[in-house]
Amino acid sequence: MSSRNDIGAALDAVDAAHRRLLALPLHTLTRSERIELLKKIDELGNKLVAFDRRLIGRLITEGAPAQFGGASWPDVLSRRLRISRAEAERRVAAAVYSRDADRPSA
Length: 106
What we know:
Elements: H1 3-22, H2 31-62, H3 73-81, H4 85-97
């Protein structure tokens, strides 16, 4: 299996787990368990943000935005992801200045 297929399969598994999680009854949890669940969700969110930064970092270091029909990376991301220009600029800046960014080796 290629890494491309591995990435797709891993993302499909995350999506399936998310759907399964949404279907679970929260009323069965105690308040303490809900707090613990919130902490785990926050940690997972942070991991997804770090992955997003790596992905954007790799994208912006290996090509030009014109390849995707944009004048800049925030332009490309705002149109492709349907997010605000300000959010796209924030994500690009976070990727550029993140130590998590996945940059090609020299």
